């Protein structure tokens, strides 16, 4: 009994010790919350945008909050972001990334080197290699869309728009980047997509270690089935050059076969987890905003297409599409919500754009959340919560790239693709895939809302911090092959 009491007392003392931090004069405002150790973890995880907006109104553009035993300094001044993004000496990206890799994918890479991995991606997602990937992706999208809506089938089909977009783009992307793998247990892309969606639905809870016992079983089962589906006996020459190069890098780094397979699941999520949701939101905005739909259709109808006897006509990525580009940028402004996180390796003084300096403690984390600012900042955008398809167009129809806050021109006026070492190398590939997909859907299908007066579904706020937001539920559509259009 006495030992139980002593352990309890020691535990309480340790708990109080962790909760006893106070703010020094040169540090950002400190908000620990009312719950010892846990702090603001519940509000942060439930709706980070709402919580951090409230903290911003209370404390300003920089503050430190306690989240499940960790102290996180949140910076929400886009003019000061470079002070974090350009510091690779005192601030580190890879440590926290490795924590998430272990929690979500059960992956621990020996000799993990993000710089080398990014260099490999740059080699295969730029120049002639990008042209090859774009062409392969276009063929796969056309084939899948043809199987989904055969020209001789005139009846309407009904589906959720999110499932429609995510499914087709995921499957096309899988075939483009992973489809050359041998011996994937004979599974077709629909089966892989189904398992992936089960896994993806629980991803944020895996990251936050908040799965209940039943969810742990579901997530673990989906993860293991995906490992089986992604575990090849070898590579064929038809595998994407990026995939072959990446596997070679893993082997040379000492990764065994199981580790390589786990890394494939990580790459599957990294390459396919955002394109489908982005296309969903874009089409959802168009279907619920007739003026925007009319403008995009008008622009698409004026474009000339690549004509090749070996495949159906496709968009030339070199052709300017300023209206579509504005719609995409506005869509991403409203729905792309990644965190940019760094771990403080040593005590550091952070200098803000206004000249104010703040001390950061070793062992803390720093978090940028561009969704709150600049993307939803009312000091930058008029009516920031409203979709305006031409927000990123000048009056003469040219792309708008100049935005201000407080009279100062912004370097970062939206950040859906990250920045610095977090910048997305696959951005050109993703943009071309979304543009080709939307063009195919709008020019070769008749698409209607099942309920014309229905609005957009609510956002799943627990996805804040993990890339593209996803909806709660779906937006139901009906579609069929466009009569008189048989070029798919």
From TrEMBL:
Could you tell me what this protein does?
Answer: Catalyzes the biosynthesis and metabolism of eicosanoids. Catalyzes the isomerization of prostaglandin H2 to prostacyclin (= prostaglandin I2), a potent mediator of vasodilation and inhibitor of platelet aggregation. Additionally, displays dehydratase activity, toward hydroperoxyeicosatetraenoates (HPETEs), especially toward (15S)-hydroperoxy-(5Z,8Z,11Z,13E)-eicosatetraenoate (15(S)-HPETE).
The entry's protein name is: Prostacyclin synthase
Q: Name one GO molecular function term.
A: oxidoreductase activity, acting on paired donors, with incorporation or reduction of molecular oxygen
Which sites bind substrate?
Answer: 103, 109, 274, 365
Membrane topology designation: Single-pass membrane protein
Check the UniProt entry and state the signal peptide residues, or none. 1-22
Q: Which Gene3D superfamilies match?
A: Cytochrome P450
Protein family (similarity comment): Belongs to the cytochrome P450 family.
Pfam families the record matches: p450
């Amino acid at each position: 009994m006495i030992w139980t009491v002593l352990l309890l007392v020691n535990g309480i003392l340790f708990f109080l010790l962790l909760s006893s931090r106070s703010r020094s004069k040169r540090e950002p405002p400190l908000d620990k919350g009312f719950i010892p150790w846990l702090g603001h973890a519940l509000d942060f995880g439930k709706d980070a945008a709402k919580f951090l907006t409230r903290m911003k109104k209370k404390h300003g553009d920089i503050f430190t909050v306690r989240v499940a035993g960790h102290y996180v300094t949140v910076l929400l001044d886009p003019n000061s972001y470079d002070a974090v993004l350009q510091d690779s000496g005192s601030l580190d990206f890879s440590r926290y990334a490795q924590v998430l890799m272990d929690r979500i994918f059960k992956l621990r890479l020996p000799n993990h080197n993000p710089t080398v991995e990014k260099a490999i991606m740059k080699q295969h997602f730029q120049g002639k290699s990008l042209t090859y990937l774009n062409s392969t992706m276009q063929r796969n999208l056309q084939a899948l869309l043809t199987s989904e809506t055969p020209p001789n089938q005139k009846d309407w089909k009904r589906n959720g728009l999110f499932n429609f977009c995510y499914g087709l783009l995921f499957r096309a992307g899988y075939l483009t980047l992973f489809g050359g793998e041998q011996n994937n247990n004979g599974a077709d892309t629909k089966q892989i997509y189904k398992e992936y969606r089960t896994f993806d639905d629980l991803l944020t809870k895996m990251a936050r270690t908040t799965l209940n016992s039943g969810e742990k079983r579901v997530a673990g089962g989906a993860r293991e089935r995906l490992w089986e589906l992604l575990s090849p006996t070898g590579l064929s020459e038809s595998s994407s050059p990026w995939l072959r190069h990446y596997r070679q890098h893993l082997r040379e780094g000492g990764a065994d076969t199981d580790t390589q397979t786990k890394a494939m699941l990580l790459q599957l999520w990294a390459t396919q987890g955002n394109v489908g949701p982005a296309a969903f939101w874009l089409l959802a905005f168009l279907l619920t905003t007739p003026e925007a739909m009319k403008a995009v259709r008008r622009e698409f109808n004026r474009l000339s297409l690549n004509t090749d006897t070996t495949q159906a006509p496709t968009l030339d990525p070199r052709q300017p599409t300023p209206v579509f580009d504005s719609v995409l940028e506005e869509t991403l402004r409203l729905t792309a919500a990644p965190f940019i996180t760094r771990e403080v390796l040593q005590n550091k003084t952070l200098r803000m754009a206004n000249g104010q300096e703040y001390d950061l403690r070793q062992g803390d984390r720093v978090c940028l959340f561009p969704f709150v600012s600049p993307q939803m900042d009312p000091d930058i955008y008029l009516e920031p919560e409203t979709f305006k398809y031409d927000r990123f167009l000048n009056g003469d129809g040219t792309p708008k790239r100049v935005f201000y806050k407080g009279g100062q021109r912004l370097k970062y006026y939206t950040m859906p693709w990250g920045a610095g070492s977090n910048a997305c190398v696959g951005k050109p590939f993703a943009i071309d895939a979304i543009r080709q997909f939307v063009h195919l859907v709008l020019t070769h299908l008749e698409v209607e809302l099942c309920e014309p007066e229905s609005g957009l579904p609510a956002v799943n706020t627990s996805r804040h911090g993990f890339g593209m937001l996803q909806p709660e539920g779906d937006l139901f559509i009906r579609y069929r092959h466009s009569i008189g259009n048989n070029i798919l």
